[in-house]
Amino acid sequence: RTVYVNGNFLPEEEATVSVFDRGFLFADAIYEVTSVLDGKLIDFSGHMTRLHRSLDALGMAMPMKDADLLAIHRELVSRNALSEGLVYLQISRGAEDRDFAFPGPDVPPTVVLFTQEKQIIESALVKRGQKVITTDDLRWRRCDIKTVQLLWASIVKNEAKAKGADDAWMVRDGYVTEGSSNNAYIVTTDGTIVTRDISNDILAGITRTAVLKCAAEIGVTVEERAFTVAEAKAAREAFSTSATGFVTPVIAIDGEPVGDGKPGPVAARLREIYIEMSRAAAI
Ligand code: PLP
Questions:
Q1: How many angstroms separate the alpha carbon of residue 25 from the centre of ligand 1?
Q2: Domain membership of residue 94 as a residue range
Q3: Which of 4, 54, 93, 283 has the fewest C-beta atoms under 10 angstroms from its C-beta?
Q4: Which PANTHER family match (predicted)?
């Protein structure tokens, strides 16, 4: 694989980052994941908008223009002959002697990008539907910033796997926040889609925005509000969204089937429309 580090395209074996990098020492870094379909980027501008927001929130400067980042994304897709998968981008506050205080403006950020192949369209998980467990959301209170501080998300994902499930829906004060790396939705018995409203408690998914537009297009009512675990278990249908999972049905919560325990029609329809829309707008 060819990867990008601070201005250079290199074979992955030759790419290095300092042991003093603040991303490594403090998780002082932010990231974006943009999916690739047919060798094209899905909703790149949405990911750039959120990137700016994450950087602003942490007082970090944009290391280069959006257009330059786009060129690097495309170059990596091309050099790796990537047809379907993702491009990962990480920007850290750079490398300096270990110190909690931020380094001065002379310290350049560390910019890393790499590609990863992933079957997005023909996904076994989408066909089968995911089983989720519910667990405490013990993350910090700035889940709206896409930082690489992903330890709790990683722990709950592993907790889910250990219990024979696929993912964990995290719960704060009795209400579902989101999945380990995706936004969470239910479809109530009257056919309304419910997903948590945007706040510091969740990451505002780029896919979430797009999928809610798709829902409006097909005339499905959406309520952006928190829902309880009990509501989720009584739902007709459940699903999650993310850049690389698109729309993925949820068929069980804590071992209890959701609806009839099969992937639901609303998720399937939204996935179809989302793919169609994304393909048409991909760059
Ligand atoms: N929530 C969390 C915690 C995430 O990590 C992600 C994506 O990685 C999402 C939601 C979904 O965001 P997006 O649709 O932009 O991928």
A1: 23
A2: 2-117
A3: 283
A4: AMINO-ACID AMINOTRANSFERASE, AMINODEOXYCHORISMATE LYASE
